[in-house]
Amino acid sequence: MGNLLEEGAGVPGSSVDWWRSRVSLVVGPLLFIALWFAPLPIGTEAHRLAAVMALVVAFWIGEPIPVAVTALLGPTLALLVGAVPAASSRDAAKIAFGEFGNPILMLFIGGFFIAESMTVHGLDRRIAMSILSRRAFSASPARMVIGLGLCCWFLSMWMSNTATTALLIPIAGGMLAVARKGRPPGKLDAAAMLMLPFAATVGGLGTPVGTAPNIIGIAQMEKLAGYKFGFLAWMKFGVVIGALMMIALSWLLTRGLGRSDVDLRAHAIAEKKNLGGWKRGEKITLLAFGVAITLWVATGLVQAFGSKAATEWFEGHLPEGGIALLASSILFMIPAAPGRPTLTWREAARIDWGTLMLLGGGLALGDLMLKTGLAKALGEGTVHHLGVTSAFWLMAASAAMAILLSEVTSNTATATMLVPVVISIAINARLNPIPPALAATMGCSFGFMLPVSTPPNAIAYGTGLIPIATMAKKGLIFDIIGFFLILGGLSLLVRLFGLK
Question: Which end of the chain is more exposed for a tag (fewer CB within 10 A), N or C?
Answer without folding.
Answer: C
